[in-house]
Amino acid sequence: MTDKQAFLSLGLEPRLLHAIESKGFEEPTEVQEMAIPVLLRNDTDIIAQAQTGTGKTAAFALPLIQLHDSSSKNVQAIVLAPTRELAVQVKDEIDSLCEDSKIRTLAVYGGQSIDRQLKALKKGVDIVVGTPGRVIDHLKRKTLNLQSIEHLILDEADEMLNMGFIEDLEVILAETNPNKRTCLFSATMPKKIRELAKKYMQEAVSLKVESKSISTEKIEQNFIEVKSRDKVEALCRYLDYEENTHCIIFCRTRMDVDQLSDELNSRGYEAEGIHGEISQAQREKTLQNFRNHKLNTLVATDVAARGIDVNDVTHVINFSIPNDPETYIHRIGRTGRAGKDGKAVTFIIPSEFKKLMFIQRITKMKIEKIALPEVKDLIDRKKKNFERDLANTDSASLGDDYYNWAKALLQEYHPSVLSAYLLKQLFSENLNPDSYAVVRDPASKGSRGSYEDARETSQSRDGKTARLFVTLGKRDEYNSRKLVDLIANAASMKNHQIDDVAVMDNYSFVTVPTNKAELLISKLKRKGNQPICSYVRDRKDGHSQRKSFRRNRRRA
After folding, report:
1. What digits encode the pLDDT tens for the residues 372-383?
2. Domain 4-208 belongs to what topology?
């Protein structure tokens, strides 16, 4: 039940109460109690510091709605957000609180047709919510005029700093009404954000909601140290060893999310990614699949993962180390909920050790180092899982056909011979130590380039693999998963036999078993019988192949 009097006491008008109740708000959050009365006075700038998920959007949206001037034909307020996803979310939040009012809102961001935005701006907009890049684009086109705005809101200011938008913000601020009211909302207050506030805000009121510590009693916190080139292999080994995982894997950038989710899918894991460039419809579909356990591995950026509320996340995996202690706390707090145990593991390279120790010191949490499971441990785990599944099998579910076949085979073959043969057919690859890539000790000396790394991996299995150059890349609409499927089908291989996949814009590299290389080269050909792939014999050869291919492609 909504505490209507509590909201009214903040100075909000009764006409907003129905929208507040419809949103399910029971009582004002701390940041709303602090910010709304000051915003409604409309006489001072505000710097508000509060954690993500504390109701910051409603804290500035409700006053903007109440202060809206229906007689004005100009843009009255602009809200700047770091990603298009956040821009859309903020716009939708404002719309949901407007209800019957005739406030016209518009989200402007890259990736959407600019023509739609131009038409809306031409008709007239009251509140614009946008990403810095697209707002600057409209300013340059002179399709967005901010000279008459009354309010400028900087939402998630620290994230804009992390994403390199400080200079863009200064460009935008210089194009706005000098008498406007500026309100800055941020989870943290880094030095550059404070400098920005000092430069562009006048005698701002500072509001701070003290961070509430997230209970980590149920969360086992660990880290694994590996070399950069081995991170994906190490992650897969960890996922293989852990059981019944329902995990969120955090990456730093949307490009990292795309690459990692593609790589995981190419290796047989069902994973989907979310980031600021994913459409809202796709994001909601992915999250719904994750909540319903149709999807057990979610790869995400920090910004895209905000607002995810799933109580049965078993693991949080920091594939990229968090930028700061508060981000670390937010990430790991997604597991160990509702009284359940959870695990948080952070993969670091040796140069990131000090950063992790800083996070440990500031958060006052113990993050213990663990060893990556050995190949023999993985094989033992797979054997035990098979035995467990066998013990739990309902004999009635197997069907008469298999029983009758088994009886016929047992009359002709000894049970132990038959069982061994069937186990070999089932597990010859999964239980073969040589089918696992080498993960090097990060403490070992020597660090070679990525090409030598791939070459070393390709030759690490008794010389039984070959490195190939493939004249297909992202320009041909190939990603890791699509390329692996093509190669596997062409040469009758299993996906896990294809290793070290590197997809560039115009070409790719893969490692395959030597006895499949010739078959693959003979099978994959373009029109005119030109081979799509060829051997890479050394670094110089690979470099010359790339140059030659680029030159020929330009000519074509």
Report:
1. 988 888 888 878
2. Rossmann fold (3.40.50)
